[in-house]
């Protein structure tokens, strides 16, 4: 029960921060982009094909006119998506680990090594 409460609070905090803080992130270029801009080769950069087909390109949810709202929604969707993938991977790993346990052993104990 404590683990479930921790997970729920952690997800709520992460989603809250993603929605509330991400719209206020700096629009200034990052270090690499700034150097490319200063040295005059920014326009030669190209997106990888994978980035062109991204479901949430440029950290803004498509179809939403307001840039801050689009960024907040992208943060919401991205945070929940990341949590879902991590939770799914943890479930798979946990399930694979159960095969190592001796079925005659009490719950929570490991197989003898």
3D architecture notes:
With 113 residues, this protein is mostly helical. It has one domain (2-98). 58% of the residues lie in helices and 0% in strands. The chain has helices at 2-21, 31-39, 49-52, 67-98. α1 runs antiparallel to α4 (67-98). It is elongated and about 70 Å long. 6% of the residues are buried.
Nearest-angstrom radius of gyration? 21 Å
The chain-level mean pLDDT equals: 83
End-to-end CA span = 30 Å
Work out the strand percent: under 5%
Structural class: mainly alpha
Number of helices: 4
Sheet of most strands: none
Helix content: 55-70%
Number of domains: 1
Total beta strands? 0
What is the N-to-C order of secondary-structure elements (H for helix, E for strand)?
A: HHHH
In quaternary terms, these chains amount to: single chain
Shape, per Cα inertia axes: elongated
Query: Low-confidence stretches at least 5 residues in length (pLDDT < 50)?
Result: none
Which helices and strands appear, and what pairs or packs with what?
Blueprint: H1 2-21, H2 31-39, H3 49-52, H4 67-98
Helix pairs in contact: 1-4
Which characteristics define this entry?
mainly alpha; 58% helix
Summarize the structure.
With 113 residues, the chain is mainly alpha-helical.
